[in-house]
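Changelog entry: the Signal peptidase I record was regenerated in this release. Current contents:
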Amino acid sequence: MTTEKTKSDQLRSIFKTIIFAIALVFMIRAFLFSPYIVEGASMNPTLHNGERLFVNKLSYSLHDIRRGDIVIIKDEAKNKHYVKRVIGLPGEKIEMKKDQLYIDDKKVSEPYLKTNRQIANNMDMELTGDFEPVQIPKNEVFVMGDNRLYSMDSRNGLGLIDEKRIVGKSEFVFYPIKKIRKTT
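Regenerated structure tokens:
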């Protein structure tokens, strides 16, 4: 009888451990980190179609959204997520003139566009195209893909993004394993 009770206790203990582990995974995924898949070419060459990202959902509870962050945006109406880079922050005036970003009338460097800018220049094209000044309201951000020629973003379809729609900040690519890297 003692042996049966011991086996029963062991099975109960294993079952509790498994339930605890599953609950822990769901909590981590819901509140801390979550995987997302890059779909499309709008973030090339920074991110590629099919790559899998770990997204920090807690990041913006600890600090404000920063220019240059790669974020996941939730579109509940389409039941879809977008991966984009934050370009303009609340309260800023943003515009493009002659393929150059200006924020509050100051020229801003975008080093993550180096490869795409070279390709556009070789094709005698503008990478981004000009757009009139946009004043970004409180609690909203302006986002663009790094592959500006092939990106639906704040300029042409997504509009300004309410900060509440941002799921979190992309931290690193974890798949394919050969290409594990930070996404900043």
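The chain has two domains: 1-31, 35-182.
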